Q: What sequence folds into this?
């Protein structure tokens, strides 16, 4: 597995829960590559502040996965497994002490236990994963309180697989991701508004009209109208001087044409 494949798997892991076979394939191959900024290995659960600081750093870097149960030895990663699972509810409560609610909502903890020998080196081993998704419009993610090793309102990120305070360049990159997402979201909303307006315009113009040509009824109507005209007079159509030069349906048709041009512009269609 190369790093590009690893990044694809990590993205997939963030988007949906995996079964044992998928996790087995991922872990068996990822330990050969080692840690990247989006993936961190821990032999066992470490103190809560360290985990929270790591989660914030990974989140500000775009999200990722922390696998608990992988040991580092002489620059190699060994899937040694956990003796037992930590309670998910207790873990979540601990994370809430330092991590903001909008990120807590994007974190899930998954358990993997391999009882069968079919899973090779993972047989009879347990692993827990912290899967960190992000919503770029919420960036940056900041700690909500001070601790011994974590600071309130500090921006942490990952740099060369280490947890660091973001420098000026990294803060700008984080903010650029937020702005780009919000702009894209705004564009999508504008597009939906334009489509809705176009539908309303189409509802105000008839696709076809009924026009009777010839036939007995038309001749009879003309004869009756002609006979009565001499008795009760007749009507003349006189244009209302206040009526717009462009009649309603012509105006709607013109608006539809202009709205279609605007939608093409939103879609970057020439």
A:
């Amino acid at each position: 597995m190369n790093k590009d494949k690893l990044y694809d798997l990590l993205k997939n892991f963030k988007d949906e829960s995996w079964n044992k076979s998928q996790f087995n394939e991922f872990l068996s191959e990822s330990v050969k590559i080692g840690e990247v900024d989006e993936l961190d290995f821990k032999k066992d659960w470490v103190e809560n502040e360290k985990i929270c600081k790591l989660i914030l750093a990974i989140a500000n870097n775009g999200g990722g996965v922390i696998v608990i149960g992988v040991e580092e030895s002489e620059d190699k990663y060994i899937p040694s497994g956990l003796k037992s699972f930590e309670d998910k509810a207790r873990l979540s409560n601990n994370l809430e002490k330092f991590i903001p609610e909008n990120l807590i909502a994007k974190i899930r903890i998954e358990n993997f236990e391999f009882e069968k020998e079919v899973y090779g080196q993972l047989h009879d081993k347990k692993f827990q994963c912290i899967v960190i998704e992000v919503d770029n419009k919420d960036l940056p993610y900041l700690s909500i309180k001070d601790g011994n090793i974590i600071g309130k309102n500090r921006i942490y990120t990952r740099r060369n697989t280490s947890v660091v305070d973001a420098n000026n360049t990294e803060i700008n990159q984080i903010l650029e991701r937020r702005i780009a997402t919000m702009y894209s979201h705004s564009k999508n909303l504008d597009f939906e508004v334009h489509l809705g307006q176009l539908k309303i315009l189409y509802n105000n113009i008839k696709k076809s009209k009924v026009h009777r040509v010839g036939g007995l009824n038309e001749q009879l109507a003309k004869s009756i109208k002609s006979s009565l005209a001499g008795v009760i007079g007749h009507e003349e159509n006189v244009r209302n001087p206040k009526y717009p030069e462009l009649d309603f349906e012509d105006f709607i048709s013109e608006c539809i044409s202009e709205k279609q041009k605007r939608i093409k512009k939103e879609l970057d269609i020439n």
